[in-house]
Amino acid sequence: MRLDASGKVSLDHIYTAPDPRTYFQALRPLGYRVPQLAKPWFEKTVKEYREAERVAEPRVLDIGCSYGVNAALLKHDLTMDELYDRYDGSGPGSRAALLERDRDLTRSRRPAHPLRFTGLDASAEALAYAHEAGFLDDTVNADLEADDPTPAQRDRLAGTDLVISTGCIGYVTERTLTRVVRAQDGRLPWMAHFVLRMFPFGPVEDALDGLGYRTVRIDEVFRQRRFAGPEERRGVLAGLAAADVDASGLEEDGWLYAQLYLSRPRHR
Ligand SMILES: C[S@@+](CC[C@H](N)C(=O)[O-])C[C@H]1O[C@@H](n2cnc3c(N)ncnc32)[C@H](O)[C@@H]1O
């Protein structure tokens, strides 16, 4: 088992398969569930945005969207359990056949309230699948940690109403979020990020503060997934201790936990 710099097991190999089966089959035994726990919070945020800004069809940017997981949950009202069953290997055997089945689903299960989803991810394969399947309306294949968006990518990022993420802050930092905000020509999209407790959110919050945001942390913790094994447990507990985060009653019992940070413009 290879650990990354944060002490977490490296799952990079599951992000770039041509279809979602590898992803869901690797994460199911780990009980990965944060998108499911995030769903009602994202729904609430979208509803509040719709009402406050009177936008009929908000444009959501999902950072680190992978195979369009949050879009599948929010736009097509799927659950993580349904996705785990859907891609468990017992269904269609080829990418083309999986796509055909997913297109049927995305065409027939429309959202009760219209919503547009753009996915930003470093994985071209995951984005291509999610777009062809109809989970994502648009995609930005970029690593904004490393580079500024190209003019074409800026155009796709512009006009975002809400920025969301699950399981991605850590890979992605204030560098990406700042570049997303700077692509908006002065507007500040609302944000909702589920962030593992091992990743300090302070630098992100400071950067957002400098851009005109106020951030609140919701006073609740959310199970993300189980540790992949004792090595990862040791690595993560060491990281949490170094960051002065008390793991008793939480990570010490075998699960990684996330917290929810909501950022909105200070002056509206
Ligand atoms: C743990 S997965 C989370 C996927 C999805 N949000 C979910 O909760 O199921 C992390 C995702 O972040 C993407 N990622 C990693 N580094 C990135 C970067 N620098 N910019 C954009 N996406 C990145 C990976 O390709 C992967 O799809």
Description:
This protein has one domain (12-265): Vaccinia Virus protein VP39 (Rossmann fold, 3-Layer(aba) Sandwich). The chain is built from ten helices and eight strands. It has helices at residues 21-27, 34-53, 69-75, 80-86, 95-108, 124-133, 151-157, 174-182, 202-211, 230-242; strands at residues 59-63, 116-121, 138-141, 162-166, 190-196, 213-217, 222-226, 255-265. Strands 1, 2, 3, 4, 5, 6, 7 and 8 form an eight-stranded mixed sheet that branches. The longest helix is centred in the N-terminal third of the chain and has 20 residues, at 34-53. S-adenosylmethionine (SAM) binds at residues 15, 34-35, 64-66, 69, 120-123, 126, 143, 145, 166-168, 171-172.
| Biggest sheet layout | 8 strands, mixed
Q: Please tell me the CATH architecture by its name.
A: 3-Layer(aba) Sandwich
Distance between the termini: 48 Å
Global structural class: alpha/beta
| CATH class identity | Alpha Beta
Question: What is the number of domains?
Answer: 1
Helix amount: 25-40%
